[in-house]
Amino acid sequence: MKFDPSIVLANWDILAYGLLVTLKYTIYTCGIGLAIGLLVALLQLAPWPLLRLTGRVWVEFFRNIPLLVLLMWTYYALPIFLQIQIGKETAGVLGLGFYASGFYAEILRAGVQSVDRGQTDAAIALGMGYVQRMNRIILPQALRRMVPPLMGQTIMQLKNTTLLSVLTIPDLLYQAGYISSFTYRPMEVYTVIGAVFILLLFPLSALSRRLERKEAA
Q: At the top level of CATH, which class does the domain 6-216 belong to?
């Protein structure tokens, strides 16, 4: 059997829709993950033990539970515990967002802690509170160092969206499976899917490496 890419070209609109869904969920879940991750990172850096413990528990829970398990639990179990209806789209966004938040939180925490301790001491000497010195002194300096690892995690998040197919969300991988089901040509379809991810992620990976070298210089 010969490799026939025309099978994919004949169904490009289906794959294009799946790509848009994949990108949409990547943007949504990265935004949620960064927002929660920043809050959790600040909790871990707070001067109060209970807040630090809360942040640590959040990170360890969401970094160590398999993403597939988290997605299935969010979709099937969470509605039972909360006695509410949760659609597959909401479950997908929450599962991926919470999962990403654990990794983003560690990147943000490490970035903040990489700032010289003298900066914090100087801010305290000027009478700044915790929130003030974070907003005005620490976070602006730490942000430059965070960009390469944050981009790396965002790349991983884009690939993680492929698991949304288990919730029957029509992302790129789900659409590939759909095309394969009636063309019986999975080799062509999944080869193209792999090429699409390479074309999407290679420029981001190159940019991340460039920023990392620039920061190290």
A: mainly alpha
